[in-house]
Amino acid sequence: MGKTIQVLIIEDSPVVRSVVKQMLSADQKHTFEVHGSENLTEGLAWLNDKPVDVIILDLSLPESTGVETIGKVRSADGDVPIVVFTASEDDTLAIAAMHHGADDFLVKTEVKQGSLLTRTLLYAIEHKRAQAALNQYAVEMERLAEQRALQIVHQDRLATLGTMSTGIVHEVRSPLAFISDNARNLKNSWEHVDACLKECQKNKFGDMEETEFLLDEAPDMLDDIINGVERITRITNGLKKFARKNDEEVKPSNIEECLDSALMLCQNLLKYGITITKDLAEQNQPVNLRPQPITQVLINLITNAAHAMDQKGSITLTSSFVEGTVVITVEDTGPGIPDDKLESIWEAFYTTKSEDAGTGLGLSICKEIIQQHEGAITAENVPGSGARFTITLPAVAS
Questions:
Q1: Looking at the domain assignment, is residue 150 inside a domain?
Q2: Does residue 163 surpass a pLDDT of 80?
Q3: Taking the CB of residue 136, how many other CB atoms lie within 10 A of it?
Q4: φ/ψ of residue 203, rounded to 5
Q5: Is the Cα torsion angle 393, 289, 264, 133 positive or negative in sign?
Q6: Which residue in 47, 132, 305, 330 is a FRET match for 398, CA 20 to 30 A apart?
Q7: Across residues 99-127, what is the average pLDDT?
Q8: Which residue among 65, 97, 119 closes a domain?
Q9: Domain co-membership, 78 together with 99
């Protein structure tokens, strides 16, 4: 049966806790050990002391109600899968719960069979594991990219990365097309499948629970696949654009497009716990630059800000035009930079990261790229906030 799955149910109703335990204990394929807490304080204490694989969370507790309850659990443990278990059938509440960090949502009155509860818990656990693996992959890719920077400093700095990115995009596009085409074909044919399933349901043929699950969930699952493919396509298109070789000519370009590209390529870092605010100039005056390396500079600054805040805080991006120049700032709410290190951060190999987390080349490369564009980049601490990086580039003469 595999390892025992540790489940923590935070629910003030002893009847509901008992029913959940009975449902999970009846599962013959998996072994669950269910721990019950009648209030949030007790649940958080358990979470702090004991390992938990998944949490079943009621949103109507004596000391906490609504989606804020999810945030309190997330503050105690940012990684544990959370399945909201509530009496409310409000779709708006379900969406809000997912936005606040829940991994799935179940309505108590709809859970009449243990298999649905079991399936939901297992899905939440596997979804969280896949997410952790993807985050680890992103960290590894960052580490490899920084190692590559050792060669990039003495060669065409971004050509190698561009070649690698182009290859990745090329390899991804074919399987992505298969997934997209097959999902759309199935979506277009769903009317016929739906009719067959309803006929099976009417004649009580096959597994009624599985048939009901497919009728209820499959259309949404197909929509999720199609939307996910479209999102990956947007990212790969942006990556392909970003991966252009660094020999592109300086040309009048839109700095806002560079900012948007950088944010898109940093999505994985920014989607949890970080608020992005943009305050961009109303006029759209072009700037003489090479978009790809400038986007790389912005990616480095946004990534550094996210890491400095431990992925909890806000990043503000601004642009303005001042006396023939465009001024871009990246400001965070992190701890800032020690005053005695404000000059050292531009040195090659200087880093505050651990030895296996980076080479310290990021900001030195940023400075060189900006200088190649006849611009300047500076860093300062903002009183009461974090660090602010300011880039100044010459604008196209009007």
A1: no
A2: no
A3: 10
A4: -95, 10
A5: negative
A6: 330
A7: 85
A8: 119
A9: yes
302-320 burial, b at 16+ Cβ within 10 Å, e below that, comes to bbbbbbbbebebbbbbbbe
Strand 82-86 and strand 104-107: the pairing is parallel
Q: Which two tokens stand for residue 172?
A: 């991804």
Burial class (CB in 10 A: 0-12, 13-18, 19+), 30: middle
Q: What is the pLDDT of residue 360?
A: 43
Q: What is the mean pLDDT of residues 354-367?
A: 60
64 within 8 A of 40, measured Cβ to Cβ: yes
Residue pair 83/57 in contact (Cβ under 8 Å)? The answer is: yes
Question: Do 196 and 166 lie in a common domain?
Answer: yes
Question: What would the two tokens of residue 204 be?
Answer: 């009580």
| pLDDT value at 154 more than 50 | no
In the numeric block, which tokens belong to residue 341?
A: 């290190």
Cα first-last separation, the chain? 72
For residues 351 and 267, membership in a common domain is answered with yes
Within 13 A of 311's CA, how many CA atoms are on the CB side?
11
Asked whether residue 139 is assigned to any structural domain, the reply reads no
